[in-house]
Structures are given as C-alpha cells and as structure tokens.
Amino acid sequence: MNDTLERRSGGQFCAHGDGWRAQPRAVFSAAQKDWVTRAGSLTRHLSTLGRVTVRVTCEKVGLAWRDEARVLRLARRAPVWIREVVLTVDGVSVVAAHSVTPLRASRGVWQAVRRLRTRALAELLYADMTVTRSPIVSRCVDGAHPLYRLAVAQLGPDRPHACVARRSVFTRHRLPLMVTECFLPAMWTMMTY
C-alpha cells in the first residue's frame, strides 16, 4: 500500500467542523491519539494486531448525514452511495466504518467502491496515485450523532457513553469520498501499549 497519499493531499474538501477537530481532544488516551492520527491504511495498521476481516453491514443509495452533506457541499436531499462495514481483528469487532460519495461519483470515478464486497476500501484508496486525502480529523461521538448509533449496533447491552471516531475526505478527479471510522471499545481493550 502507498502511504504517499497524505503527503500529496491538496484536497479541496476539509473534513473539520461540527465538533470534528484537527487535533485529538486532550481527554483521548495516548493510544486513542495515536490511532486517530495514523496516516495510511487503517486496515494495514490493524493487521499488526491480528487477522483483519471486513464485514459489510450496508450498501445502498441514501442521504448523507447533515455534517457530511455540509463538508461534501451536497444539495439538500442529494442522493449518495453509502457503504458501512465492520472491521474485525481475530473475530473481534474493533471499528465501524461509514463511507459516502455522491451517487453520480459512485457511478463514475468511485464506481469501484460499489464492487468491493468484503475487500477493504484501502485497496482502492492507496493503489491510485490520483487520489488525495484531506487531513484526518477526530471527535467523540455520542447518541446525538448517527455514527454512534451505527457503532453501538455492533455491541451488546454494555454500551459506552461515547466512542472515538475519525474521518477524512479522499478526492479523485475532484469528486469526494468521505470515510468515517469509529473505534469500538474492544479496540482499546486489545491494545498492548
């Protein structure tokens, strides 16, 4: 995989605002700060912890969340392609991920996203030298954010008050693909720092 993506970032989209910050919050643990700021493929980084698998939970045409639509400069009620997956390490769910791109882009420059099935999105993003990435931003998400509801759907009754998440916008031929990744509590319990 190619880690030059971040260095080539000249993206016209900026993923911050609405509580998303360029610097991790002071309340994040050292491990959380490390993981939300890691450049390159999250899947590749997770593979250092064990065997990573991708479980697709949703692929559909829908509407972007309000904060996504604002960043992506989408018209109200503009259709988007949504892909949601859970990344597991040795069978344990550690990340819930949500990707969104304008529907027209999913039929054009980002059409390969619709054919990934259980392959990691990183296979597309880091193999293409025309793709750029905005800076990574992070925040805590709680019940007020749809990402939290997506993440806790993967958990049993023992749910955290909030989860740590990060997002960035990948751009190919001026068309965006926003990727948001929410770290589940099991991620931090399996860490050995």
UniProtKB/TrEMBL annotation:
Enzyme Commission number: 4.1.3.40
Catalyses which reaction(s): chorismate = 4-hydroxybenzoate + pyruvate
Pathway per the UniProt entry: Cofactor biosynthesis; ubiquinone biosynthesis
Keywords for this protein: Cytoplasm, Lyase, Pyruvate, Ubiquinone biosynthesis
InterPro entries cross-referenced by the UniProt entry: Chorismate--pyruvate_lyase (IPR007440), Chorismate_lyase_/UTRA_dom_sf (IPR028978)
Pfam families attached to this UniProt entry: Chor_lyase
Example GO molecular function: chorismate lyase activity
Residues binding substrate, per UniProt: R83, L121, E181
Example GO biological process: ubiquinone biosynthetic process
Subcellular localization: Cytoplasm
Annotated SUPFAM superfamilies: Chorismate lyase-like
Gene Ontology annotations for the cellular component aspect, listed alphabetically: cytosol
Family classification: Belongs to the UbiC family.
HAMAP family, per the entry: UbiC
Function statement: Removes the pyruvyl group from chorismate, with concomitant aromatization of the ring, to provide 4-hydroxybenzoate (4HB) for the ubiquinone pathway.
Entry-linked PANTHER family: CHORISMATE PYRUVATE-LYASE
Name the UniProt record assigns to this protein: Probable chorismate pyruvate-lyase
Source species: Mycetohabitans endofungorum
Lineage of the organism: Bacteria, Pseudomonadati, Pseudomonadota, Betaproteobacteria, Burkholderiales
